[in-house]
Write a structure and sequence with these properties.
Strand content of chain B: under 5%
Shape of chain A: flat
Radius of gyration of chain A: 27 Å
Structural class of chain B: mainly alpha
Oligomer: heterodimer
Helix content of chain B: 55-70%
Structural class of chain A: alpha+beta
Helix content of chain A: 55-70%
Largest sheet of chain B: none
Largest sheet of chain A: 6 strands, antiparallel
Distance between the termini of chain A: 69 Å
Number of helices of chain B: 5
Number of helices of chain A: 19
Order of helices and strands of chain B: HHHHH
Largest interface: A-B, 73 and 58 residues
Radius of gyration of chain B: 26 Å
Chain lengths: ~650, ~140
């Protein structure tokens, strides 16, 4: 009964969204059009909430007559993971995607609707309606999480589920995908706004004010979601790294780069009325990249640790959705972009120039990640000899761009909007750069580390110095509140650059075979395997090692790394034991064994020395906090009254006057 | 009885996980070079994992092979070429620069240069349109 009701509400959601799309995009407006849009958005959101609730119920009650539950759940699973399992699979996660999209649509209609030009609002809602209807139709017809198993005559529904990937039985899964999806879906609003402003040739500054808060919010969620995933991988995969350039990680990085670029170009648009077309282009690309990410994760074209989510047939449908979205949006862009406006006038040595260089690097990084991730697939499609693209490629291509961006961030805040004439600005810029370059060269020479690692550390130090200086100076000025979120977020980035580079260039790792009672030296640590206890968890077998590590300082620490085996899914996993402090982590795993006729001889103990890992999580949290605060300020600064529809020619005349004056 | 069954399952699981490798010991700086190489070589039997992190038996053997090659005095490129010859080019996580990988390696710099070109040409145009006697903005 519950699955059927849920399917019904899904159908309702699809219909309301389609109606919203059609009415919103009709050139002729109805009386009370805005109210109608709002009502439809509420209805769509409510219907999807009910559908999602139905999925939660069938997972919690272990209703194995439902195909998705049967394939992804098990009665033995702890309750928390039964609930999180509702989105730990393809069907459930796409429904969550649709639900969060509808949530944003609803929030946008409530929050921005009354403060916007009705025509622009209505077209935006129309675009959101079409996007929502497409996703709902996909769920309903191709990927329903509520479909019952097709029974042959005489068959009955299964009494037990077929389990869940043990890697997914972690608290990380409870929060990582929802947070990430809040990031992906947040970009749906700037996308729809861009199409609407292009269609009506709305005013650029107005577009930036409306699009900025949603972009920034989504940027914060993307950053948080990506780092939660990274934190999960670090603790759960047992490999010791925090970023693997796995195709699916890359997929989430693409919209992140674009959201970062868009948030900054919109700020330039708002303040200086420059980069309008570029911002519109980025806004369209941003949500397209989110859908591309969904396609990459869900289609199975990529080989990845996230392969549990793959299904090629549905991938084709998502690809079609993406293509329609791209063609539609870029067609509107091609025909309606403001080529009639004179290009923006700005000095390159200025805040605008810094934003532009940051945007250029961000867009290039996004493009590189797309190409690097898809290249093996393209090569395969062209029938050329297979190749792989992994971490070393991205370290050589994307990281240099990101490192250059840290230098842009070192300089950027020193330059005011519009730039400033003369020697004062140049001496500020040269001072900021020389701090960064000096720390770069010093760390390169002193620590004997890789060139690019040292460059990254230098850029991080540069960012820190510039922004701490800026913070101290702005502390008592009236603009302190306005500047604080940016300063905090950037300080987080500076710390992250240092921690991230340090965690890689100063890392050490080694493994040795150790018998119980034996001691060996691994990367400077004296490691003793005191004991080994075999046992059984709720749905796995386990071996827990008692390991004593004597650090070079002479202090010792007891750790208990664990090796698990999940019989239902036939998967071994390593649960790392980590000794963590602000300076470094010692990461211990036991993961393989030497046996002789059933008798355990030796265990492989792997020790990884990883500096600054804790600082990495802390700096990410600082950045996310800063971005969230900025988003809050931007929501508060949304215009209070409905702006008049900007006539198409007026801005042209005004801008020309501006241009002449400048 | 249950206890015995469980330890039987355990044994099969662990045998799948691997037998021990990493038997060759190198001096510290050469081991660091070996570890860098491990990050550039994909484990042939795993899913998108370098041999540096893989628990598979084959990865352990490959790590030892690389360490042995280092002891033999082979250069990094010689070591990688030998591995490619055995396991195919897809073993390299950092594709060698050649004709079919040229677009891949050119992509980031092409993007930056194209962006710079667009910015410069836009600024040219902006400077032109800023002159009051020029009305052609397209």
């Amino acid at each position: 009964m519950i699955p059927e009701l849920g399917t019904l509400t899904l159908a309702l959601a699809m219909i309301t969204a389609a109606v919203m799309g059609v009415i919103g995009l009709r050139p002729k407006m109805l009386a009370r059009q805005a109210d109608l849009m709002r009502a439809l958005a509420s209805a769509q959101f409510m219907a999807l909430t009910l559908a999602f609730a139905a999925v939660l119920v069938v997972f919690i009650t272990s209703d194995f007559s439902v195909d998705t539950v049967h394939k992804n759940s098990h009665r033995l699973k702890p309750m928390l993971y039964k609930i999180t399992g509702a989105w730990g699979n393809h069907e459930g996660s796409i429904l969550m995607w649709a639900l969060i999209g509808a949530g944003y649509t609803y929030a946008f209609s409530r929050f921005a609707g009354p403060r916007m030009n009705t025509r622009i609002f209505s077209t935006t809602m129309g675009v959101l309606g079409l996007l929502g209807a497409g996703i709902a139709a996909y769920i309903l017809f191709l990927s329903s999480p509520l479909a019952r198993i097709d029974l042959l005559p005489g068959e009955s529904y299964p009494l037990e589920g077929t389990g869940l990937n043990p890697l997914l039985q972690d608290f990380g899964l409870a929060i990582h995908p929802p947070v990430l999806y809040f990031g992906f879906l947040g970009l749906i609003i700037p996308y729809a706004l861009a199409i609407s402003y292009l269609t009506h040739r709305g005013e650029g500054k107005d577009f930036s004010r409306q699009a900025l808060p949603w972009t920034t919010l989504s940027f914060a969620f993307l950053s948080a979601g990506i780092m939660l995933g990274s934190w999960w991988a670090y603790r759960e995969l047992g490999w010791g790294g925090w970023w693997f350039w796995d195709p699916v990680e890359n997929a989430s990085l693409i919209p992140w780069f674009l959201a970062a670029a868009l948030a900054h170009s919109l700020a330039a648009l708002r303040t200086r009325n420059v980069l309008l077309n570029w911002s519109l282009f980025l806004a369209i690309s941003g949500y397209s990249a989110s859908i591309l990410a969904a396609f990459l994760v869900r289609s199975g074209v990529l080989v990845s640790v996230h392969a549990f989510a793959a299904d090629p047939k549905r991938g084709a449908a998502i690809l079609l959705y993406l293509v329609v979205m791209l063609i539609g949006a870029f067609a509107v862009y091609a025909f309606r972009a403001r080529r009639d406006l004179p290009p923006g006038q700005y000095n390159l040595i200025s805040r605008e120039g810094a934003v532009l260089s940051h945007n250029l690097l961000g867009a290039a990084a996004a493009l590189t990640v797309v190409i690097g991730t898809l290249y093996p697939v393209i090569i395969q499609a062209l029938d050329m000899p297979l190749l792989s693209v992994g971490e070393p490629y991205f370290h050589a291509s994307v990281i240099p761009l990101m490192v250059l961006a840290t230098y842009a961030m070192t300089v950027g805040p020193e330059a005011p909007w519009r730039g400033a004439a003369g020697k004062v600005l140049w001496s500020k810029i040269i001072l900021a750069l020389s701090v960064a370059v000096t720390s770069f060269i010093a760390s390169w020479l002193v620590f004997d580390i890789s060139f690019i690692g040292a460059a990254c550390i230098g850029g991080g130090v540069g960012i820190l110095v510039t922004h701490v200086k800026l913070g101290v100076k702005a502390r008592k000025s009236p603009s302190a509140r306005k500047l604080a979120p940016m300063i905090i977020a950037h300080i987080g980035v500076g710390l992250f650059a240092i921690a991230g580079a340090g965690s890689i260039v100063f890392a050490k790792a080694g493994d040795r075979a150790i018998a119980v009672g034996e001691s060996k030296d691994i990367v400077g640590f004296n490691v003793t395997l005191d004991s080994l206890t075999e046992g059984q968890g709720p749905n796995y077998f386990t071996a827990i090692g008692g390991v004593t590590i004597i650090k070079p300082s002479g202090k010792s620490v007891q750790l208990e790394p664990e090796f698990r085996y999940y019989p239902v899914s036939d998967m071994p996993t390593s649960e790392a034991a980590i000794d963590s402090n602000l300076l470094r982590d010692v990461y211990v795993t036991i993961n393989s064994i030497e046996r002789n006729e059933g008798e355990v001889l030796r265990w492989a103990v792997r020790i990884q020395y990883r500096p600054f890992i804790l600082l990495l999580w802390i700096s990410s949290a600082i950045t996310v906090f800063g971005i969230l605060w900025a988003a809050f300020n931007q929501f508060a600064a949304l215009p209070k009254r409905r702006a008049a529809l900007a006539p198409a020619l007026k801005p042209l005349v005004q801008n020309k006057k501006d241009a002449v004056k400048a | 009885m249950i206890k015995r069954a469980s330890s039987m399952v355990m044994i099969t699981a662990l045998l799948c996980a691997s037998a021990l490798a990493d038997t060759v010991t190198l001096p510290l700086d050469e081991e660091a070079r070996a570890q860098d190489l491990f990050r550039e070589v994909r484990c042939p039997v795993c899913v998108a994992q370098p041999i540096a992190e893989s628990d598979a038996q084959l990865s352990g053997q490959m790590r030892d092979r690389i360490r042995n090659d280092i002891v033999q005095g082979l250069s990094n490129e010689e070591i990688l070429a030998a591995l490619s010859a055995t396991y195919g080019d897809s073993i390299r996580l950092k594709p060698k620069f050649e004709l079919r990988t040229a677009p891949l390696w050119a992509a980031p710099w092409f993007a930056v240069l194209a962006g710079l070109f667009i910015i410069i040409s836009m600024r040219r145009r902006a400077r032109k349109t800023a002159q009051p006697d020029n009305n052609d903005a397209s």
